[in-house]
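Worked example 4.2. Below are the chains of a multi-component assembly; read each line carefully before continuing.
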Amino acid sequence: MARGDAEFVEFARAASARLVHAAYLLTGDHHQAEDAAQTALVRTYASWPRIHDDDAYGYARRTLVNHLVDGWRRPMQEYPTDEVPEQRRGDVADEVATRRWLIAILGALSPRERAIVVLRYYFDLPEAQVARELAVSVGTVKSTSSRALEKLRAAGARAADNQEARR
Amino acid sequence: MSELDRLRDAMRATERRGATLDLVAVMRAGRRLRTRRRLAGVGAATMATGLAATLVLVAVGAWPSDPPRVDRPPPVAVAPPGTAAASPVQRSATPTPPPTPPPTPALKPMGVVIDSGVRNGTDQRVYYVVGVSVPGEPGVSIGLAAGRRAPDGTLTTDILVNDVQGVDRRPGFHQIGYDERSSAVPVPTFGYFVGPAKRIIGTVGGRQVDARLTFWSVDKQVVIFWFDPTELTPGDRLDGIIARDSSGRRL
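Applying the procedure described above to all two chains together yields the following structure tokens:
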């Protein structure tokens, strides 16, 4: 294995889980998320000779997010309970509930809003960097982020009302 | 706990540890993509319309050592038949023939070159359909190029987009081309729709933007559209896009 390949494998092993999860947050679909993460890593590896000394993780993240935002025509789907074992432990049930809540409220956002929320609050990127990665202005990030948070609050309130109604 | 804090916690709490991807497959596909990019990079797209093109270009699909296909090809795949057009291609790019492929005809617009009305200095921003060939995808034979036409008629291709699977005349929207900041001038967002569209509307940041559109001279079902750069900043990603027919019905 070439020296660059060994470095790439090390990088990919370290970055895969977060990339897959970020893709899941953006799509709500585990299978689509894995495909997207794999696509991002393919493109990262294809460009590896010129990026591996730079910010490889940032490159893979940008590739992933833009790949998914470009695919906005695909509807967001929800598979909140797939791969959940039949014998559920309490913490698994909690995680399923959390995942269901998370996908429901992210599903209320447009693809661009989801991308900004994931970059800002999952990757903890500053607004200026989110703007660069999505090739939009900082003003667009701020306004979109604000709109997304309003939707999240509304979705959260609706979810709380639904829970209350079920009691 | 605020909704935002809960959101942050939920995004982290639902991470799956030990998610594994097939890195062997990743690297295999990555090598193929790297090869494809390298071959595309030696292609040129500077040509003079109406003049006999003499550029020597590479046929990506016919390259002897080219793999049959990329497992997950990029959305912008550029492989004209008998050519390899780079995406993007600089006007100053000098075509360098690879060592073995035979000379093949140069990239050539199919049908009328469309003047968008946008000007880059003295150049016209133009769009044109070109023939492409994607290995293993016989249903893909055309791509849409964004280029510039100089006063002397010279065309320079900035971006070429095409489907990488399926059928390029499938009804509906196809690949959309965005400015990639790699051209000397911004490239207005563009694409094509197959069907009786009379109006195409993009959405960005909650705002609706009407696209300019016209038909491809070779096939009237192919509606080529672009967004005025003063209304949609080149490179800004659309949140959504719809097409409507002459009665306003959504297609």
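Take a moment to check your reading of the output against the notes. The CA atoms of residues 9 and 45 of chain A lie 9 Å apart. Residues 138-166 of chain A form the longest helix (29 residues).
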